[in-house]
UniProtKB/TrEMBL annotation, chain B:
GO terms for cellular component: plasma membrane. Pfam families: BPD_transp_1. Residues 102-294 form the ABC transmembrane type-1 domain. Keywords: Cell membrane, Membrane, Transmembrane, Transmembrane helix, Transport. PROSITE patterns: ABC_TM1 (PS50928). One of its GO terms (biological process) is transmembrane transport. The keyword Hydrolase does not apply. It is found in: Cell membrane. InterPro entries: MetI-like, MetI-like_sf. This is Sugar ABC transporter permease. Coiled coil: none annotated. The chain crosses the membrane at residues 33-52, 106-130, 137-159, 171-193, 214-239, 273-294. The keyword Cell membrane applies. It comes from Cellulomonas composti.
């Protein structure tokens, strides 16, 4: 008995050891580079625009981003012309823990070649804390950005006068989502000014208030980042009531949070967001805004069959298009669409937006070439074509709006391309993290959820400025 | 035949009847204490509370995407709807690549279980049966290492791996899991080895057995429950680990395990709940099978090791 048992244990141990060796061997041979698969000629693709990058056969560029499925596939597809024409291989890696993991990798010395930085504030942190890892934008990148982007975009990708990161995608935040069908049925016009907007809201209250409907619905819940949609409201309003110059000074805290100009803007936001007659259609009272996730905030605009909707307007960025349920027709004559969030008068039309930036952590020629490619119109158009469901735009002026499939993206591209409209980047993304990703969010949430007074909220945010 | 049965039949010379009576009395008391209505109801309430989130996840995973986005899972009871589409998409969808990550998880987990057990067995034997200078201090040091949180070692370790050129391979994950598991493994297995009666080892030595022979013929057969319990423990920990894998293996398809993929399944804007819930259940299958298959070792092995030390 004992000897049989012993032999069995021996056998088990031996099998285990053998298995370990086999697995070890497999792991050791696991080459992270899939080898030179590019054939260089690129078949039928038109490679003329790619000749400037030279022959990059056998070279690999790693890309690290915060964009995961399902939005990652269009990105991977958009690199194909580059890979086919130059022979380089692009290795894409997306992670939702990108912002923490990127810093870990930089610290440990295993930086990716290219990273998509979702906010300029992070770029500043990297330049300040890891100046040896990041490399300034390549010449080709710089030339492309000068040619195809407005100068303000270049400043957002620069730190202390050095240009590091080229703009990639963009989004427009100054949008109000509405239902064209319902507006038509009720004879409502799209408001051109702030006063029109308030008048329309009052009209909706008069027409539908008795049925329990409200003109506005909103949701600012977003996990750790709860409150950011409310900061967008205030940013949009500061642009309208105080203008771009004050906005720029506000970001650097030369205009304080408790400055009367900011207080005026917050009061205007309160006229809608804290007005119990106006909110929160289909979702509850004012405080329900804080409890509703931003994904769900606009859904009451869609009416159930044969019924009137419980909500008529929802201010949210262009990317909200992805949140409508499958089958919703997002078009100017469809179920939902967006209009430009009006300024105080029809003449001033500032635009609030956001976007990602491409930073390079290696000066190898293939990395420089790829960074330049991402700033080129070839990439912008390839990306537009490879995004069949829409939900993506770029501020690249070489982007042909015809390549964009969804009407909302086309509208965004038109607004981004309109140089008469003053564009400003999302302020909370540019402020120090203690405010822009901290007290600004939490205090705006308290403003809504607890009914904290305007003055208290602004004082508290100002006090937290580092 | 086994350590457990031989322990129960040890005759230590005291009057048998009274010892057994005392044991019976204690067992009866324990049974009364645990069997009371109050204790049972607390246990049942705890079990229900702990199961509700998983249950909600299960319900979510079989609801259509539109339902998940518009109402909570508890409304399923009033308006039941069923779809296997979520599982279908997770398992066969072109973008999820679950099979690749499933294989990666096994390739990561199996060596991460075998390596620390092998090393810890050898170390534990030395600590228990080979007298050498500084043994006590060294053992206390190993024991104390359990207190150190692994998080503080992440960045220095990664820096070191990059310097050695191991970055992006399975080695980083295997080595890290081994390093983090060793203190507990050595401690647990050492306690088991210490429990083996000295007379048994001495008898073997008198028969002419050296350390190697004692280790393989005396210790290993007796340690099977301990090894199995630690193996399950380590298997579950490595299989479910996200932090270590994310830091060292990153999200690269070549080496990342299932948990890394699972964490991304909800999508950039957290709107893919239907995939996340179904994916979670697919990932759960393996640990559940392992646990059920080896469950009887689990409690026995862990309890014996920790209490007797």
């Amino acid at each position: 008995m004992t000897s049989v048992r012993r032999r069995r244990v021996f056998a088990a141990a031996a099998t285990g050891a053998a298995l370990a060796l086999v697995l070890t061997a497999c792991g050791g041979n696991d080459d992270p580079e899939p080898g030179a698969t590019g054939d260089g000629d690129g078949g039928d693709a038109d490679c003329a625009a790619y000749e400037q990058y030279g022959d990059l056969s056998g070279k690999t560029v790693t890309v690290y981003t915060s964009i995961v499925s399902p939005e990652d596939q269009p990105h991977i597809d958009s690199y194909k012309p580059f890979e086919e024409c130059t022979g380089a291989t692009i290795s894409y890696e997306g992670s939702k823990e990108f912002e923490a993991q990127l810093l870990v990798r930089l610290e440990a010395g295993s930086a990716p070649d290219i990273a998509y930085i979702p906010q300029p504030g992070l770029l500043q942190t990297i330049v300040q804390d890891y100046p040896d890892t990041i490399v300034p934008a390549s010449e080709g990148t710089s030339a492309n950005v000068d040619e195809f982007f407005s100068p303000s975009w270049k400043t957002y990708g620069s730190v202390d006068g050095t240009f590091y990161a080229a703009p990639l995608g963009a989004n427009v935040k100054s949008f109000v989502w509405y239902s064209p069908k319902q507006f038509e049925a009720n004879g409502y016009d799209i408001p051109e000014t702030w006063d029109d907007l308030i008048a329309l809201s009052d009209k909706i209250v008069a027409d539908h208030g008795a049925d329990g409907a409200k003109p506005w619905c909103a949701g600012i819940g977003s996990g750790d980042a709860t409150g950011w949609p409310a900061t967008d409201w205030l940013e949009d309003m500061v642009l309208r009531t105080a203008g771009g110059d004050v906005y720029d000074k506000w970001i650097t805290n030369d205009v304080k949070f408790n400055d009367p100009q900011i207080a005026t803007a917050l009061e205007k936001v309160g006229e809608i967001l804290r007005n119990p007659d106006y909110v929160n259609g289909g979702l509850g009272d004012v405080s329900s805004i804080a409890a509703t996730t931003f994904q769900d905030g606009g859904l009451p605009i869609l009416a159930e069959d044969g019924k009137d909707p419980l909500c008529y307007m929802h201010r949210q960025a262009s990317f909200y298009a992805a949140n409508w349920p499958a089958g919703t027709n997002v078009a100017e004559d469809g179920d939902v669409f967006a209009f430009y969030f009006p300024g105080l008068d029809a003449g001033t039309r500032p635009v609030l937006g956001g976007g990602e930036f491409v930073a390079a952590f290696s000066d190898r020629p293939e990395v420089a070439a790829f960074q330049a490619f991402l700033a080129s119109p070839e990439w912008a158009n390839a990306k537009a074509v490879s995004t069949p469901n829409g939900g993506w735009v770029s501020a690249n002026s070489g982007l042909d709006p015809k390549n964009l499939v969804s009407p909302i993206d086309q509208l965004s591209a038109t607004i981004l391309g309109d140089t008469t409209q003053e564009f400003r980047f999302d302020a909370s993304d540019l402020m120090p993290a203690a405010v822009g990703a901290g007290s600004f969010w939490t205090q705006m949430t308290a403003w809504i959820a607890e009914g904290k007074s305007d003055a208290d909220v602004l004082d508290a945010i100002q006090a937290s400025w580092p | 035949m086994s350590a457990v049965s031989s322990e129960l039949t040890i005759d230590d010379g005291t009057p048998k009847g009274s010892a057994i009576d005392r044991l019976d009395a204690r067992a009866a008391k324990a049974r009364r204490g645990l069997g009371s209505v109050g204790a049972s109801s607390i246990a049942i309430v705890l079990a229900i509370l702990w199961t509700i989130p998983t249950f909600g996840l299960l319900i979510t995973s079989i609801r259509p995407q539109a339902d998940i986005q518009t109402s909570g899972w508890w409304t399923w009871f009033s308006s039941p709807s069923f779809t296997s589409e979520n599982y279908h998409e997770v398992l066969t969808g072109s973008t999820t690549n679950f099979s690749t990550f499933f294989v990666n998880s096994f390739v990561i987990t199996i060596p991460s279980v075998l390596i620390p057990i092998t090393l810890a067995l050898l170390a534990a034997y030395a600590f228990a049966w080979i007298p050498f200078k500084g043994r006590e201090i060294l053992f206390v040091a190993v024991f104390a290492l359990q207190v150190v949180p692994l998080q503080i070692a992440l960045i220095p370790l990664l820096t070191q791996y990059v310097r050695w050129g191991l970055n992006g391979t399975f080695w980083t994950v295997w080595l890290s899991h081994t390093i983090f598991a060793l203190p507990l493994a050595i401690f647990l297995l050492h306690n088991f080895m210490k429990d083996v009666p000295r007379s048994l080892v001495e008898a073997a030595r008198v028969d002419g057995a050296g350390h190697v022979r004692i280790f393989f013929t005396v210790m290993l057969p007796l340690l099977v429950p301990a090894i199995a319990s630690f193996a399950i423990f380590q298997f579950l920990w490595v299989w479910n680990d996200l932090l270590v894998a994310l830091t060292f293996a990153g999200g690269s398809k070549n080496v990342a395990p299932l948990t890394v993929r699972l964490a991304e399944l909800a999508g950039t804007r957290d709107d893919q709940w239907h995939l996340l819930s179904a994916g979670a259940f697919v990932a759960m299958v393996v640990p559940v099978i392992v646990f059920l298959a080896l469950q009887r070792y689990f409690v026995r092995g862990l309890l014996a090791g920790s209490v007797k030390g």
